[in-house]
Amino acid sequence: MEGDKRPDKLRVAVLGCGSVGSQVVRLLQEQAGDLAARVGVPVELAGVAVRRLDAPREVEVPADLLTTDAVGLVSRDDVDLVVEVIGGIEPARSLILTALENGASVVSANKALLAEDGPTLFEAAEKAGRDLYYEAAVAGAIPILRPLRESLAGDRVTRVLGIVNGTTNFILDKMDTSGAGFTEALEEAQELGYAEADPTADVEGFDAAAKAAILASLAFHSRVTASDVYREGISEVTAADVQSARDMGAVVKLLAICELREGEGGEEAVAVRVHPAMIPRSHPLASVREAYNAVFVESEAAGQLMFYGPGAGGSPTASAVLGDLVTVARNRLAGTRGAGESAYADRAVLPMGETRTRYHVAIDVDDRAGVLAAVATAFAEHGVSIQTVRQEGRDDDAQLVVVSHESTDAQLSATVAHLRDMEIVREVTSIMRVEGEHE
Ligand SMILES: NC(=O)c1ccc[n+]([C@@H]2O[C@H](COP(=O)([O-])OP(=O)(O)OC[C@H]3O[C@@H](n4cnc5c(N)ncnc54)[C@H](O)[C@@H]3O)[C@@H](O)[C@H]2O)c1
Ligand SMILES: N[C@@H](CCO)C(=O)O
Ligand code: NA
């Protein structure tokens, strides 16, 4: 960046003017005075790239600032900062790379892209000597990436547990409070505008998995991409699972779980997964209701921290984008850049089968002598120790609810397969991992 002159203003291009982009433009317009004071020079809108010039928008943009030529906009010499809020992989990736090559600093909210191909973007930013910030990509308005990257940079993070998808939290909360089934709760989420018409990315855990990859990379200073994340969504969660959780004083949440665990040869490895799990109602994450998000961080020196707030929505997400924009603008004026990627620890990602967790298993069995012993033996044969067993009798059958101690996921799934093969087992009615308690 040597040779850069201190500019008397900074010019920002916004790519995409949808839910988030329109609110970014609004805040840039409404808060121009404060932003100038905080940055040190005015931050002016240079242009807004849109797909259709005549589309309805939630913000008024002067006609001469609108363009359908996003490539042309990011290639302009007078653009210092680029906000990418188009989403998806292409053309977002090419646009960000072009912006960096042309010397712009970039702010993005694009978790899908960061989780799939972050390293390509980080390397381009490093090469260009520019910033790439993306606080809005994980848990919307909640400051979580900067705390991991900066505030906790002197500590050793060992675990991150997050409710990072608002749509699924809303659905599970509805199922818990009203006894609704998954389909009914999803319909309500769609009516209220939380869930998309095609809710697959949220409901099947893809959105949370992208966020988990980003969190794990920052927390553990290693490269973790979306394909490294074990993923299960919530579409198979039944009203019976939710009731079973209630019966044991727990609640079902879709969790993004990032942990440091012992891997092969005693080396520390990263375990990262997204799946529904039962957590005790006493856990701070259990009180995260409706479409809110929260991220619970455990670190060696600080202990336990929780970050809570709105994880989605145009205006909250734009708050995080603007926060990043002020930072990259200040860096730009100071002729410096913030911390880039930190992947020095280069830890391997542990396969799901080797990840240690606990299972809650509800089984319908014949109600006769020896059944409990046979079920206990099946657990023991796979090296799984039982923590609690509860039995509820019915007419001629009984339901056993077993909660295991921590074992590898492979041992636990082998136990469930074994149970399903047993003659005395009529049906395994609910299987769910249990999190949020240390053994
Ligand atoms: N909405 C949220 O709550 C939220 C929260 C966190 C992060 N994000 C992320 O923010 C980004 C934007 O999300 P959104 O909800 O605003 O989506 P959106 O669909 O409302 O907006 C995206 C806009 O980009 C436009 N677009 C598409 N291709 C374009 C192109 N080539 N050139 C110019 N414009 C183009 C679309 O027409 C659309 O208006 C995504 O990466 C998303 O994951 C959104
Ligand atoms: N669809 C996401 C938006 C925020 O990334 C959610 O429901 O949380
Ligand atoms: Na955030």
Automatic annotation (TrEMBL):
<dbReference type="GO" id="GO:0009086">
    <property type="term" value="P:methionine biosynthetic process"/>
</dbReference>
<dbReference type="InterPro" id="IPR016204">
    <property type="entry name" value="HDH"/>
</dbReference>
<feature type="binding site">
    <location>
        <position position="196"/>
    </location>
    <ligand>
        <name>L-homoserine</name>
    </ligand>
</feature>
<comment type="pathway">
    <text>Amino-acid biosynthesis; L-methionine biosynthesis via de novo pathway; L-homoserine from L-aspartate: step 3/3.</text>
</comment>
<dbReference type="Pfam" id="PF01842">
    <property type="entry name" value="ACT"/>
</dbReference>
<comment type="function">
    <text>Catalyzes the conversion of L-aspartate-beta-semialdehyde (L-Asa) to L-homoserine (L-Hse), the third step in the biosynthesis of threonine and methionine from aspartate.</text>
</comment>
<dbReference type="InterPro" id="IPR019811">
    <property type="entry name" value="HDH_CS"/>
</dbReference>
<feature type="binding site">
    <location>
        <begin position="15"/>
        <end position="22"/>
    </location>
    <ligand>
        <name>NADP(+)</name>
    </ligand>
</feature>
<dbReference type="GO" id="GO:0046872">
    <property type="term" value="F:metal ion binding"/>
</dbReference>
<dbReference type="InterPro" id="IPR036291">
    <property type="entry name" value="NAD(P)-bd_dom_sf"/>
</dbReference>
<dbReference type="InterPro" id="IPR002912">
    <property type="entry name" value="ACT_dom"/>
</dbReference>
<keyword id="KW-0028">Amino-acid biosynthesis</keyword>
<keyword id="KW-0915">Sodium</keyword>
<dbReference type="InterPro" id="IPR005106">
    <property type="entry name" value="Asp/hSer_DH_NAD-bd"/>
</dbReference>
<protein>
    <recommendedName>
        <fullName>Homoserine dehydrogenase</fullName>
        <ecNumber>1.1.1.3</ecNumber>
    </recommendedName>
</protein>
<dbReference type="Pfam" id="PF00742">
    <property type="entry name" value="Homoserine_dh"/>
</dbReference>
<dbReference type="GO" id="GO:0050661">
    <property type="term" value="F:NADP binding"/>
</dbReference>
<dbReference type="Pfam" id="PF03447">
    <property type="entry name" value="NAD_binding_3"/>
</dbReference>
<dbReference type="GO" id="GO:0004412">
    <property type="term" value="F:homoserine dehydrogenase activity"/>
</dbReference>
<feature type="active site" description="Proton donor">
    <location>
        <position position="211"/>
    </location>
</feature>
<comment type="pathway">
    <text>Amino-acid biosynthesis; L-threonine biosynthesis; L-threonine from L-aspartate: step 3/5.</text>
</comment>
<feature type="binding site">
    <location>
        <position position="111"/>
    </location>
    <ligand>
        <name>NADPH</name>
    </ligand>
</feature>
<comment type="similarity">
    <text>Belongs to the homoserine dehydrogenase family.</text>
</comment>
<keyword id="KW-0791">Threonine biosynthesis</keyword>
<dbReference type="InterPro" id="IPR045865">
    <property type="entry name" value="ACT-like_dom_sf"/>
</dbReference>
<keyword id="KW-0479">Metal-binding</keyword>
<keyword id="KW-0521">NADP</keyword>
<keyword id="KW-0520">NAD</keyword>
<dbReference type="InterPro" id="IPR001342">
    <property type="entry name" value="HDH_cat"/>
</dbReference>
<dbReference type="GO" id="GO:0009088">
    <property type="term" value="P:threonine biosynthetic process"/>
</dbReference>
<keyword id="KW-0486">Methionine biosynthesis</keyword>
<keyword id="KW-0560">Oxidoreductase</keyword>
